[in-house]
Amino acid sequence: MNTEAIKEAVKEKYGRAALQAQKGKSSCCGPASTCNPITSNLYSAQESGAVPEPALRASLGCGNPTALAELKPGETVLDLGSGGGIDVLLSAQRVTPAGKAYGLDMTDEMLALASENQKKAGVTNAEFLKGEIENIPLPDNSVDVIISNCVINLSADKDRVLREAFRVLKPGGRFAVSDVVVKGEVPAEIRRNVELWIGCIAGALRDSDYREKLAGAGFEGIDIEPTRIYDIEDARQFLAGQGIDVDSIAPRVAGKFMSAFVRARKPAAKACCAPTCCAA
């Protein structure tokens, strides 16, 4: 599958989703048939009430990384693929005005929506950046925590995404993302379907591959915690209307796809005991 084709398909899909959210229509991660299994009940009533309604409508995630990342006052947070800004705004509140929350997105419509939501929320310690998660426009060692919500699976170059995440994290920094992860093999019919790719399904990594890629980028302390495993009825909703033989494929993918919280850590800087350390 062509990398640029995937990128353009994702950009078009999520641009439309942002416009729908601005018009008061709810968005979801992919076609309407896939909304409920992935995106339902991710945020508490308190969290939902803490952000503007359009930010919630534009939420396309599969988890709640902000709640699980254990953010601390004063930290700098980066959300990869920030969309309408819900996780950035919630993060900014958690790190307090002493901290900073960045959102990175490549879609103009989503960036415009996020900026509008920021103004409505009155959040001053957030900033939205235009760019791709494969090329993060921030300096080395500048971020305490990286979060993301069902976005890394959309990238056609996940190794580069993880290397970039490692680069911008400070020593000891935390990688704490929600993503769709797969156990076992996925039928080729699904991998070839672009609509399912941009719907957060076809591009998902196997859990073992996710661990290997994180380790290859330099991360340690890697952990993948399932937050929801999708059953056969969920699989039917994923696949409906995609030109796929649902009765044939659904039993082969049931229980293989899951939303998961993926944790890892950039190694802390090594202490130096040599006489020349301070000078260096």
Model description:
With 280 residues, this protein is α/β, with parallel strands linked by helices. It has a single domain, classed as Vaccinia Virus protein VP39 (Rossmann fold, 3-Layer(aba) Sandwich). Helix content is 39%, strand content 20%. Strands 1, 2, 3, 4, 5, 6, 7 and 8 form an eight-stranded mixed sheet that branches. β1, α6 and β2 form a beta-alpha-beta unit. α1 (3-22) runs parallel beside α7, α8 (158-168) crosses α11 and α12 (232-239) packs across α13 (246-253). The model is unreliable at 27-36 (pLDDT under 50).
Task: Write the SSE topology.
Elements: H1 3-22, H2 35-39, H3 45-49, H4 53-57, H5 65-68, E1 76-80, H6 86-95, E2 100-105, H7 108-121, E3 126-130, E4 143-148, H8 158-168, E5 169-182, H9 188-191, H10 194-198, E6 205-206, H11 207-217, E7 220-229, H12 232-239, H13 246-253, E8 257-265
Parallel strand pairs: 1-2, 1-4, 2-3, 4-5, 5-6
Antiparallel strand pairs: 5-8, 7-8
Sum up the structure in keywords.
280 residues; 20% strand; 13 helices; Rossmann fold; eight-stranded mixed β-sheet; 39% helix; globular
The count of strands amounts to 8
- How much strand content do the residues show? 15-25%
Please report the first level of CATH classification, the CATH class.
Alpha Beta
Major β-sheet profile = 8 strands, mixed
- Bulk shape: globular
Number of helices: 13
- Low-pLDDT stretches: 27-36
| Structural class label | alpha/beta
Elements, N to C (H/E): HHHHHEHEHEEHEHHEHEHHE
Distance between the termini: 47 Å
Quaternary state, please? single chain
**CATH superfamily membership, which one?**
Vaccinia Virus protein VP39
